[in-house]
Amino acid sequence: MALAFDEFGRPFIILKEQEQKARLRGLDAQKANVAAGRAVARILRTSLGPKGMDKMLQSPDGDVTITNDGATILEQMDVDNQIAKLMVELSRSQDYEIGDGTTGVVVMAGSLLEQAEKLLERGIHPIRIAEGYEMASRIAFEHLENVANKFEFDASNIEPLIQTCMTTLSSKIVNRCKRSLAEIAVKAVLAVADLERKDVNLDLIKVEGKVGGKLEDTELIYGIVVDKDMSHPQMPKQIEDAKIAILTCPFEPPKPKTKHKVDIDTVEKFQTLRQQEQKYFDDMVQKCKDVGATLVICQWGFDDEANHLLMHRNLPAVRWVGGVELELIAIATGGRIVPRFQELTSEKLGRAGLVREKAFGTTKDRMIYIEHCANSRAVTIFIRGGRLILSYFFT
């Protein structure tokens, strides 16, 4: 296809091999659109139900994803047809609004298109078919209202919620542990839910995974898990009644924003520079100690001298913690994120009943558990298992 202009400057399009192209009109065009929607539904149909099969998807980069989630499958597919793209949007909308049923909604839409094709061949206008589907939708909704059962539950009786959650795990690759996983999911949601307002903030639920162990080792932690370890190996591995300083300022001397050069030609000048730098570290650590902090969590890193000084001052520290984790830690512990040491006060410290470092297996992987927080509404689902299990959870 190329763009050209006539002698009056008006643009027109030149199509290559135009004699071999044809334009579909009327019933043929409608059937082509229906066929595109049915093709997408046919791909997902085999992954629906208890005996549904998972799909193995390979990206152009070679990354392999195994899933039976309809939204994930369609998102990985390279779809060109506009009607097929509408099916992809349908699945994405279902995932955004409900969070489940992404495969079922596409398969159902494909079945409706299949029945609509038969009606089109009988000469029924598409608008009449759409009106019939809308009428059928209202009747089906009314019938669902009549046959629906209401499950009563409260914080002390969560068995109905667990049974409901187990039905959504029957067709997954984790069905052998569906009882324990359903309990974890229900308890995590109830921990962050406001039952009076019927409001759930799912952003307070963090899902963390670590390769290794068994799926049965998956646990629910009423607090935050950070994939870091103490900055110094000789720092305490367990801190009770921790008062946490959450910092976004680094443990290092201030750096000028302009280009600078320091000439050191004598030992005295070097000693003066070293003492000045050590004084900066001393002041930073002392400010944390003065407000009563027993643990420092910093978004940035700090060099060996600051790390050594923190260890000698008996002030455990965790460095290179991401911004999302910092926000969750602040929410869970009731602390404030402090951007400058001068603004650090005892009122801005977060509080947790227990902070501990836990090692996994023989690989010496370590993670920080922050538990029994002042505000326990933030929880973490910590998943163990092989790479296949973790890739399933995080798609």
TrEMBL record:
The keyword ATP-binding applies. GO terms for molecular function: ATP binding; ATP hydrolysis activity; ATP-dependent protein folding chaperone; unfolded protein binding. The keyword Methyltransferase does not apply. Pfam families: Cpn60_TCP1. GO terms for cellular component: chaperonin-containing T-complex. It is found in: Cytoplasm. Signal peptide: none annotated. InterPro entries: Chap_CCT_epsi, Chaperone_TCP-1, Chaperonin_TCP-1_CS, Cpn60/GroEL/TCP-1, GroEL-like_apical_dom_sf, GROEL-like_equatorial_sf, TCP-1-like_intermed_sf, TCP-1_chaperonin. Keywords: ATP-binding, Chaperone, Cytoplasm, Nucleotide-binding. Belongs to the TCP-1 chaperonin family. Molecular chaperone; assists the folding of proteins upon ATP hydrolysis. Known to play a role, in vitro, in the folding of actin and tubulin. This is T-complex protein 1 subunit epsilon. It comes from Olea europaea subsp. europaea.
